[in-house]
Give the backbone structure.
Amino acid sequence: MNDVAGIYARESGYLDSYVQIALAQGRVISVSFPTEPEPEAGSEHALLDRVEAYLGGERDTFEDVQVALTVPTDQRAVLDAVGSIPYGETATVEQLARMTPGRDPDESAPTIREAVTVNPAPVLIPTHRVRDVAGSEPANIAEKLRAVEGL
């Protein structure tokens, strides 16, 4: 998959939008939820199959999916910690600060909030599991992602 690049999108009736992924060198560089996909987007990709199954209730952590994070190091550490929040569970900003290595929990809230809001790959990096800050996905999408996991 290292040579895979492009944009792929598939309509989700559950989300009332498309799920669109962008890949470079086999790594996900973004996940978005447009009302219309990019004109050059393909519709067939194994990751879209997995996301569709997840939205249908099939449990998937997406831990094996490589995401190319182009965010500052402190935000990367936060997003890595978000990835450790188990499926079907949530965490607060305060809990996430304690889960993030190298962060002072008493001074981390702004960095945590910023990292969650700039997450380039919602679903794959499940910021919808962070309870007290809005992620980068639209609010209606986050609500539906939480519902999939029974949150």
Residues 46-55 form the longest helix (10 residues). The chain has two domains: 6-55, 73-148. The two ends are 33 Å apart (CA to CA). The mean pLDDT is 92.
